[in-house]
Amino acid sequence: MTPTPIAPSTARTYPSVNIAHKLSLLHEHWSQRVVAEMNDYQFKIAKLQGDFVWHSHADTDECFFVVAGELRIDLRDGAVTLRAGEMFVVPKGVEHKPFAQNEAHVLLVEPRGVINTGGEESERTRANDVWI
Predict the structure, then answer these.
(1) What does the DSSP 8-state code read for residue 128?
(2) Which of 113, 114, 120, 128 is nearest to 97 (CA)?
């Protein structure tokens, strides 16, 4: 049986999330902003430049997807360098320190409520669950 098409005048329009546009609205480094949620997971954007702080997330993995630029994630036993279109998942409990020589644009995926500096408060700790 073929489904009946919805008439254009009654069809609902669903908005998409334009990551490039959302990034253009963000002007502060190291301040992630939520752009979408899926179940209990948030998709966050951030502009990164310079050095971050060593930290870990005891209860969750953290996914970094580089949209533009280059990001190095230092780990206590090595490092991974990500370029545009590449991603890396930091396993839960693993200490890491992101670094971007030049500005990098990043999409992060992690559960709602995750603090950007893990369990450590620092000058880099930012408000959580802020939407853009």
Answers:
(1) S
(2) 120
